[in-house]
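Summary for the steering committee. The consortium agreed at its last meeting that each partner would contribute one worked example illustrating the joint modelling workflow. Our contribution is presented below. We chose a case with several input lines so that the handling of multiple components could be demonstrated. No manual editing was applied between input and output; the record is shown as generated.
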Amino acid sequence: MRESSAVSTVRHLRAATLVCLCGLILTLAACGGGGSDKKTGPKAAAAEFAPPKADGAKPVPGGSLSVAVRGGPADSMDPAVANSTSDYFRTQAVFDRLFQFGTDGSVQPMLAESIKDDDPLHWTLKLRPGVKWQSGAAFTADDVVYSLRRIIKGQLVGSIGLSAVDIAKTKKVDDLTVSIVLKHPDYTIDQRLADVYVAIVRDGEKDFKKPDGTGPFMVKSFVPGERAVMTRNPHYWGGGGKPYLQGLTFVNLPDEQARVNALRSGQVDLAMTLPPSMVPVTRNDPKINLVAQPGLDAPYIYLRMDTAPFKDNRVRTAMKLALDRERCLKVAWLGYGQVANDVFGLGLADYDKSLPQRKYDPAKAKQLLKEAGVSNLKVTLSYGPSNPGMTECGQVFQQSAKAAGITIKIHRLPETDNYNPEAGFGSRQMGFDTSQGGSFSWVAPLGLLTGAPIQESHQASPEFDRLFRNYEQSRDSAERQKWLNAAQQWFWNNSGYIIWGYVDQFFGARKSVVGLDKLARRLLNSQLNGFEDVWVKKGQ
Amino acid sequence: MSGVLVRPSGERRPHRPLVAFTAKRLAASVALLLVVSAVTFFAVQLLPGDAADAVAGRSPSPARLAAIRNELGLDKPLLQRYVDWVGGAAHGDFGRSLTSMRVEVGPMVAQRLRNSLELAGLALLLIVPLALMIGVAAGTRAGRKSDHAISASVLGLASVPDFAIGALLTYGFGVQLGWFPPVAIFDADKGPFSHPSVLVLPVATLTLTGIGYGTRIVRASVAEAMQSDYAVMARLNGIPERVVVRRYALRNALAPCLQALGITCLTLIGGVVVVEVLFNYPGVGQLALDATLGRDFTTLLAVTIVIAAVYLLINLLTDLAIMLASPKLRSEL
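What follows is the complete predicted structure of the assembly.
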């Protein structure tokens, strides 16, 4: 009996092992996609993953769309404290700003028609007439003054760019005119008013569970961490029958695979914020269109400049030369994007095109380290993988830096601790971050000027501050560009930032969804509006 | 006659022993829940950061952070915060979420708990009869080829992790065939039965992962009972086999089967958490994960207490059921 039970057990184990192996093989096959893909460069992505055309059809009003976004438990409908890409999608569907950025970085009207200086410290802001809140009340200068006061006095993140504004003296002149008074000259004030954090809310608005906005959609219900249900704003000022959709629902699906699965099965119509790793899985699905948002993110590595070893600029430059950027782009982003040059704003109109492209040069890096007296440098890269590609790029950096005699130890944190001050954010020797299409002039007040609130590299350079302030305070545009170029050149030569690439992001849409050109435009300074152009083609 | 029995040791036996036993266990459970809440509360404080970091937005000024901490009560001493929470919880007030726009925690957790119980309950409704049927089928054919085939399959299934089974089902039936939704999207306050199809794949995952243990216990118990002296005697007396199975084998295998059922229920609690995250199902498991990531300690405390209470209740009910099925155990109370 014992022998037969032993034999029986062995047979069971053999059979069980076979079943497990089959299950594992099937699982791995299920997780696999359509094979690897090696298309590289922005042209390849833009051409292959262009937004679908309507083939001459005119926009059809009606229909509702469901949009899968990443989301999180700290979701907010307050545009002044928007904390994530999904917050930006939601709040920018409901609220507008005074100005917005064109794809080339130029400032364009939105709720304001113009802003003009009467003298260096006094500006007159003219508002767009005929704009109504979703409730039907008229949009006036009172709303603008309240919004600016709320942001500045509450020290919300938008106040960083508005540091020149003297809010006590800024006041309404009439219903469509605001007098903005500055503490010192700032000719970038129009850019500051185009910041996504400086959205305009209704005078007195405090409760953002179901806020009133001027945007194309209004909130019907909002459950943080789950979904936001919106309906068409009948009073929207955009004209042309926009928005075309009757309803828009944002659904939180934190996992990117879940967003793709929901899209492929038809549970949602759009799945936003898909990393390139989802491209092989979805590109051949006949039911969906995959759309590229070129140059969406600028992932970067920062080095702390106020302590050794990165206090020495030769060491910082050596680190910049020790990263194989091409390989980083291929490994971390499957080649979807372009190599960047350690300065924010690549490709924008005000980017200094004279800057030579920095390339991987471990020999030169080694030479610089020798001159600085720190051969065989050992450093620690600390980060939480809050954005795709960080882990892969960290590994590439670790390997490519070895040729320069640099040993990089990777200290990986939980994802949510990447920006957590109590987990070391602001005091790390080296770390990872991402700029969502931030222009140079947008990023500088946030983190590059002395005393800026985001202290990653702890840059505190009187020379850089002087160059940038001259840029802000120059009235003549050619003069401003000259100072901005000088600031960018200083930054390229001296900063603690390794901005190695501008990477593409993707989103997926069911075949029937068109009007996606605005959503697919190059992301700039976290602008993520565009749902007012979206509509559904019949018969698809 | 007083109705009070005296045990051989001289100790008096309670008038209603099961009631006394239940009352003692409930009292102990309340004390245990208090300990669990204290451990959870103070353990969460060890995590870096707090809810103020989560809601303040990017790069808040120190003054803004301080204002948020004051608004959320995070600047009070730890012990005072814990005592305040316990005092509120004793009256059914679990406070407000620190991150989700200050919604009341009690109704939020209740809604999610209902969703989780519906999910787990449906899985259990499938696991129990399936485990019984398959276990009896294997146990009554112990040693034969069919028993080997069933046992190997069940063992294999139990060896595959739940997330792997879920991923396979999602890909096959959800994405490729499109028969069932691969993600559980529905209004959390309306419950999953507002869109019943979202339950299919999560319930199937829980069932396939939960059926293994129970089936093996039923199989072993039935196989042992079928070879017992009374079963053999019953056959020799000409009693039909199915009557032998029902009246002799199953009845005597009941106690270990109930124990297996209890353990399956406890395992389901853990499985539900994984499945909820896998399918984005809005239950307490997903809520616990979100609360941990967002340092929302009021929500996390409430969820922990709820899960611990469910755990203790299942243990108590399992023990009571085994006692009811076993006169010998009842007499020892």
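Chain B touches chain A through 54 residues (CB under 8 Å). The two ends of chain B are 20 Å apart (CA to CA).
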